[in-house]
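Late entry, written up from scratch paper. The run itself happened at the end of the previous shift, but nothing got recorded in the book at the time, so transcribing now.
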Amino acid sequence: MKETLLPADTYIVKNSTILNSEDRLILTKLYQPVIGITAVSLYFTLWSDLDASQIISNEYNHHNLMTEMRIKLEDIIEAREKLEAIGLIKTYLKKDNINNYVYVLYNPISANEFLNHPILNIVLYNNVGKKEYERIVFFLFLIPRHPK
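Output as recorded:
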């Protein structure tokens, strides 16, 4: 059954973890080549709906999300489904005249876990090729990063 998400449908974002700059790097370098820029952009946009100290965001509607991201509702649904499939968000829905969605954000797995995952590792390698894959691994593991 096809989902009938409407621009007026509301959502809140719930943070189930503490997200940090290392997570942002993992999302960009590892997840983005696998699920695409729109899905990662949706994750970052939902993340930005939370203040640093918030566990639950204010209520928004999907029209605002469409306007902010400059994409169609169908693209939001597709991006959200990719995020759900890879374990970065979980969606809950309360049906009413105006449907209410809750998007629960989960942190990405570590770079080590990602690169040792039997499926994610292969998909990343196939999507970026040998040379770029080696560059990503070098960047993530061999260049020391210092927290600010």
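The chain has six helices and four strands.
(Scratch paper discarded after transcription.)
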